[in-house]
């Protein structure tokens, strides 16, 4: 019973250290360093770097509170992606480009073939375990374990 509890404690401790290392995103930190002032400074620095403390809109108004900043972001993206502002797209200019190589039937087929499990496994094995290949923040170590 005691051995099982110790194994569980070690497992949870390693998981916590791994989580904290990912939060810091510092490549010089190794597992076991999570309780140092350097580690906490690294986490705090990353949080401050990723935080938007103020934002200036198109009219030159600076917003510092979270609600106004969010509203300015929504307004900005609504403005740049509004359908009435979209110009007519003309792709005929591409017909005049001197393209030597075109995608043939075989190439087209290879682009739509489904990705295999082996290809996914190989791609994940080539990524460092602490790197997050996507914007969701999941590391390759997490993706490998699922």
Task: Describe the model.
The chain has 146 residues and is mainly alpha-helical. The chain has three domains: 1-51, no CATH class; 52-86, no CATH class; 95-146, no CATH class. It has six helices and two strands. It has helices spanning 2-24, 37-50, 66-80, 105-112, 117-125, 140-145; strands at residues 55-56, 62-63. A two-stranded antiparallel sheet has the order 1-2. Strand 1 and strand 2 (62-63) form a beta hairpin. Helix 1 packs across helix 2. The longest helix has 23 residues, at 2-24. The protein starts with a helix and ends with a helix. The mean pLDDT is 78.
Largest sheet: 2 strands, antiparallel
Q: Average pLDDT across residues? A: 78
Please state the overall shape, judged from the principal axes of the Cα atoms.
flat
Number of domains: 3
Task: Summarize the amount of helix as a percent range.
Answer: 40-55%
What proportion of the residues form beta strands (DSSP E)?
Answer: under 5%
Topology pattern, helix = H, strand = E: HHEEHHHH
**Strand arrangement, major sheet:** 1-2
User: Strand pairing plus helix content: what structural class?
Assistant: mainly alpha
Question: What is the CA-based Rg, rounded?
Answer: 24 Å
Instruction: Give a count of the beta strands, DSSP E runs of length 2 or more.
Output: 2
The span between the termini is 29 Å
Q: Low-confidence parts, pLDDT < 50 over ≥5 residues?
A: none
């Amino acid at each position: 019973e005691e051995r099982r509890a110790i194994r569980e404690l070690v497992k949870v401790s390693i998981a916590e250290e791994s989580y904290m290392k990912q939060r810091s995103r510092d490549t010089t930190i190794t597992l076991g360093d999570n309780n140092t002032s350097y580690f906490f400074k690294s986490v705090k620095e990353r949080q401050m770097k990723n935080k938007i403390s103020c934002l200036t809109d198109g009219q030159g108004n600076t917003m510092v509170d979270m609600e106004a900043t969010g509203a300015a972001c929504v307004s900005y993206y609504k403005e740049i992606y509004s359908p009435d502002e979209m110009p007519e797209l003309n792709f005929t200019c591409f017909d005049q480009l001197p393209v030597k190589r075109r995608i043939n039937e075989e190439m087209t087929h290879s682009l739509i073939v489904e990705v295999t499990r082996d290809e996914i496994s190989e791609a994940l094995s080539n990524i460092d375990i602490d790197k997050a290949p996507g914007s969701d923040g999941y590391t390759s170590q997490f993706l490998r374990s699922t």
